[in-house]
Specification:
Blueprint (H helix, E strand, L loop, with lengths): L3 H9 L2 H12 L2 E2 H8 L3 H13 L3 E4 L2 E4 L1 H23 L22 E3 L8 H12 L2 E6 L4 H13 L3 E6 L1 H8 L2 H12 L3 E5 L7 E5 L2 E7 L5 E7 L2 H17 L1 E2 L8
Parallel strand pairs: 5-6, 6-7
Antiparallel strand pairs: 1-3, 2-3, 4-10, 5-8, 7-11, 8-9, 9-10
Helix pairs in contact: 2-4, 2-5, 6-7, 7-9
Amino acid sequence: MAEPLEEIEFLARSPNRIRVLEALADEPHSRRDLQSKTAASQPTLARILSDFEERQWVEKGGSQYEATPLGELVADGFTDLISIVETETRLRGIAEWLPTDQLDMDLRRFDDARITRPTRTDPSGPLKRALDLSARAETQCIVSYVINYEMLETLSEAAVEGSQSFRAVIAPETIEMVRGDDTSWTRFEQLVGADAADFRVTDEPIPFAMGVADETVYFFLRDEDGILRALLESDDDDVRSQAMQTVESYWDDGRAIDPSVFDS
């Protein structure tokens, strides 16, 4: 009996084997169709089909080959494995900054996620992308331990103009950080007073910065020194559902900002 790893290696070391099995798992094909679809030579294709028949992954009916239930099982599983490894490879450079301990999200849902990193030519790329998402959104929710001046400016303009309805949950220390800059404090007061904006403060720890702009969820990924390393965004329905549950949880635990904070 073949070992599972041996069978995985058997498939993995030949892209043609993977293409043939995936093609036959989708629908029956003739040998000529398979050669056209995979660009494999006739001798190579003959060996692949013979090996698959020996493993009972495919069977021949007339001039057509098709995957057996076993072959479909292997094809589906191998496709999933490839997808998972592709996702892992994309996330590997930023995974250490993902808030996986606080947010119960399946990393496989980030297979189509967009990652914006700082570059030498555009060191503020992640922030610019977040500001663009925020400026274009009709609705937005934020849970964050920090709001910088650029984000305050973008949110304030959208909320005051009435082009966006906005909810945010922040920590008390976030308010104190904003208070330290007069321009930011003015923007913050305008934003809190806007009819389209609603803020709450929570004493629960907020160890991440997350926003939901319309259908897009985005995460500011910062390192242990607070340096912005990437913006991760996803339009996946499950990611958005989990993000909104997080927003609602913090929202329910929060309280309105006391207007007296602006008296001094």
